[in-house]
Description:
The chain is mainly α. The chain has helices spanning 2-10, 13-34, 42-57, 65-68, 75-95, 107-128, 135-144, 155-160, 170-190, 197-200. Helix 3 (42-57) packs parallel to helix 6 (107-128) and helix 3 packs antiparallel against helix 7 (135-144).
Amino acid sequence: MRWLQLYLRSRRVPLALGVAIAVFVLAWVMSSTYTTSTTINARTASLAIMLAVVAFGATLNGADDALDHTASVNWPLRRAGHLLLTAAVITALLSLSSLTDVRYEPLALVLRNTAGLLGLTALGTALFGAALSWIAPLTWTLIAVLPFLGPSSDVRVQVASWLTQPAGTTAATVCASVLAVTGLLAYALRGGPLRPASETAPDR
């Protein structure tokens, strides 16, 4: 248990969790106040999920790159577990809204967007490091929520705006699944790139 506490603190998980909760509550309050719908719309939900995923993206790298790649630890399994638990936590937080009159739903859309954005963030971490992992999910989300990108029969539009497509849209589901699986495998197997020692050494 002591090891788990140290691991969570070293990865800044409590901070990320606090940010995610604050974002979800803020989106819920805004939807409750300014709309009469009982369902938080896909654009608002996508932005909230993206901000939560970006917050948790900072937990995908530790402070010591050498430790994160040591052969004495089964890092692929640990990284995969970290990512899957992150997805479970975000989904669970969103599901709590089912206890209220305004909800993040349908569940299929919540699961799709959480998995896809988390996979995209993990892929960014594997390629560029956790510090830059937010760029891809933020950029794609801002494109997807553009007013003129709504439900469409055009596959290209469905892929570009997969976050805001209705649940059950095949192209959107496939896009999210590919991002989720690719990100999971890339991050689990590679982790983040090694940073120069000057960036990870403690200040003197």
